[in-house]
Amino acid sequence: MIPVLALDGPSGSGKGAVGMAVASALGWHYLDSGAVYRALGLLASWEGVACDDEEGLNTLARTLRLRFVHAGTGEPQVFVNERDCALQLRAPEIASAASQVAAIGSVRAALLSRQRAARQAPGLVADGRDMASHVFPDAFLKVYLTASAEVRARRRYDQLKAKGFGVTLSKLIGEIRERDERDARREVAPLQPAQDAIVLDSSVLTLREVIDQVLALVRAHPVF
Q: How far apart are CA 2 and CA 132, in angstroms?
C-alpha cells in the first residue's frame, strides 16, 4: 500500500507550506486538495456558473482539466483548462468560492477520484480539510494543523500582500471566521480532526518548527 500522510486544518493554518516542505524532504508526491476546489471555483467564475448551482458545477467538475507543474521547491505552476492561473487561484474571492462549492456533496463526490488518483509511489503528502477523515481514511499518519483566527489571518495577509493583492487584516479575520463556520457546518465531510489525528497548534511556532515536528512524527512511525 502506498503510504499517505494526511494534513488537515482550517484556512491559513500553514498546511500548504508544511505539506510542500515535508513532501520535498521525503521525496514524495504532494496534493493540494484545496487547489482542486479553487480551480473549480475559478472555472465557475469564467463560465458564469453560480457557486450554488449544483447541476452546473457538476458539469464543470466533469470537464475540469487541472495540471500542476513543479519546478524547484517553490509553489508549482497551476493550469486550469490549460490556462496558467496559479496567482488567480490565491485570490480571496476564489478561496471563498472554493469553500462554497466544496460544501455541495455531489461536487465533492465528483472530485473525489481526482484527489485519490494522486496516491502514487513512493508516497503522498495530502493537505486539505477532509484528507484524513474522508479522502484517505487509511493514511498512516494524520495531522491536524490549527492556529487562532488572528494568527491565520495575519499569515494570509502577509502572503496576499506579497503577491500584490489589496487586502485588509480586519476583513481577512472576518472571512476566515466565516469560512471556518461554513466548513465546520457543512453536511458532507465537515472540517474537524479525524478521531486518530494528532492536533498541532502552530499559533506560537515558526514554519520551520512545524515542519520539523511533522517530519519527526513521520520518521518515528513504524512505516519507516
A: 15
Q: How far apart are CA 173 and CA 154, in angstroms?
A: 8
Burial class of residue 113 in the structure, from the number of CB atoms within 10 Å of its CB (0-12 exposed, 13-18 middle, 19+ buried): exposed
Q: Report the Cα–Cα distance between both ends of the chain, in Å, rounded.
A: 13
Burial class of residue 72 in the structure, from the number of CB atoms within 10 Å of its CB (0-12 exposed, 13-18 middle, 19+ buried): exposed
Q: Which of 169, 171, 192 is nearest to 181 (CA)?
A: 192
How many Cβ atoms sit within 10 Å of the Cβ of residue 10?
20
User: Model confidence over 85-107: pLDDT tens digits?
Assistant: 888 888 888 988 988 898 898 99
Residue bearing cell 504532494: 30
Dist CA 184 CA 191 (whole Å): 5
pLDDT of res. 183: 80
Per-domain residue ranges of the chain: 4-211
| Per-residue pLDDT, 74 | 62
pLDDT at 93: 87
Give the HSE-up count for residue 55: Cα atoms under 13 Å, Cβ half-sphere: 0
Enter the pTM of the model: 0.84
Mean pLDDT in residue range 131-147: 94
Decide if 137 contacts 22 (C-beta within 8 A): no
Q: What is the pLDDT of residue 72?
A: 57
The residues with which 79 forms a beta bridge, in sequence order, are: 67, 84
Q: Which residue has the cell 494543523?
A: 145
Angle, CA of 212, 4 and 177, to the nearest 5°: 70
For domain 4-211, the CATH superfamily is P-loop containing nucleotide triphosphate hydrolases (3.40.50.300)
